[in-house]
Amino acid sequence: MSDKSEQTLQEWSQQQRNAETMVPIIGELYRERGVIFTIFGHSLVNKSPLEILELHRIARVNVDESISTIDTYPILSEVARLDLAPARIDLGNLVTHWRTASGTTIEDFVKDELAGIATGKTSLRDNPQDVVLYGFGRIGRLVARILAGKTGGGDNLRLRAIVVRPGGDNDLAKRASLLRRDSIHGPFSGEVTVDHDDNALIINGNLVHVIYANAPEECDYSKYGIRDAIVVDNTGKWRTEEDLAKHLVPGASKVILTAPGKGNVPNIVYGVNHHGMTEAGNVLSAASCTTNAIVPVLKAVNDEFEIESGHIESIHAFTNDQNLIDNYHKKERRGRAAPLNMVVTETGAAKAVAKCLPELQGKLTGNAIRVPTPNVSLAVMSLNLGRETTSEELNEYLLKTSIEGDLQNQIDYSKSTEVVSSDFVGNRYAGIVDAPATIVQGSHAVLYIWYDNEFGYSRQVVRCLEELAGIVMPNFPKRNVA
Hints:
It is built from 12 helices and 22 strands. It is of the alpha/beta class. It has 3 domains: 3-113, no CATH class; 129-259, Rossmann fold (3-Layer(aba) Sandwich); 290-453, Dihydrodipicolinate Reductase, domain 2 (2-Layer Sandwich), CATH 3.30.360.10. It has an 8-stranded mixed beta sheet with strand order 8-9-10-7-6-11-12-13. Strands 14, 15, 16, 17, 18, 19, 20 and 21 form an 8-stranded mixed beta sheet that branches. Helix 1 (3-33) runs parallel beside helix 3, helix 3 packs across helix 5 (106-113) and helix 9 crosses helix 10 (349-356).
């Protein structure tokens, strides 16, 4: 074996040992202290050693520089010595800060960077926030999966009930099966059992009542011991403030819609205009998956380059509102077979941008094409900017925004020239910048933004729930876009 081969093998073995040692530290601090460790926004919780190594591989300090467990493990070891309160701690950002630090030990550096969270408090709320899912389709089941996976001490969202229309024989068993198995997202990494006596599902030990109703006003959640619940309407059937207010029955205090709201209903894209949403009333919308994908990137680009005008084309996976084979549909073209056709259709995402970014009012147009793929969509944004730039400058700026800044959990960044849509199934970000596809000519730029229109959007919905429940964890180290 050559010297280089021997050195490469030794480095890999050391990184693997580090990753194996990191797993129990990360797991214990998550369960016992409610601390979530990430690397440039990518969660390290419940990851295997090989998954941790892969997340390090794709993590970028900048376009040409990455980090390894040789960098992150010593910092994690020092962090674990502290008496931590619930927080999100980004090891990637800590490494970049450590590289520029001078005249200090790693112990003092970590204490200084994390000052303010070593308080010993283990929960952000005295009591969990009750959540009710009204509707249990694609988004409802993914939100349920996410909530079930949040078992850390500092995360206090508790799914208490699921509301569905009356079903037939074996209804509970069928719904449990749909939660356990998913053709796109794979098996649920947890336990789901059926409790026929209470007409409930037991999800990771948590009793979740299944309530049958045809309309929101038929429900009374207080009968199940549910108090001040946030209702997540996953049906999209009711979109006005008046209709959505019907969800505010006994036991419920707020409702958030997983579709664009109409009229005066505030449309929230977490990370952009979520501040003040707790005071915005009891009826809210988490906007659409496409709006969530494009608005964070549009905000970032507008802040730095100023968008003068543009067009957004959504290349969208087909959805349940289309037909499998040709049949009548009240909307134009959507009656044609979804798995067999590209279907030009409308999208309100471009207009919805103005509700979140008023400065872009009237500057954008938009349309959509539904395509024969079941999940992951692509937004193509053709933008006229206020100044000339280059693809290198624009990509570097978006990379920095994705790894350190207020939009770190909304914008992901890919530099691979080989990725395709299926590579982004399960991606937790609202949108992913495909950097090699970026085109810039003077002041005109074209950006390609991938998004898992199911899981990435569901993560945004849960972030809204956390905001409403007052359990948003502080982020450390403090973020600054360079």
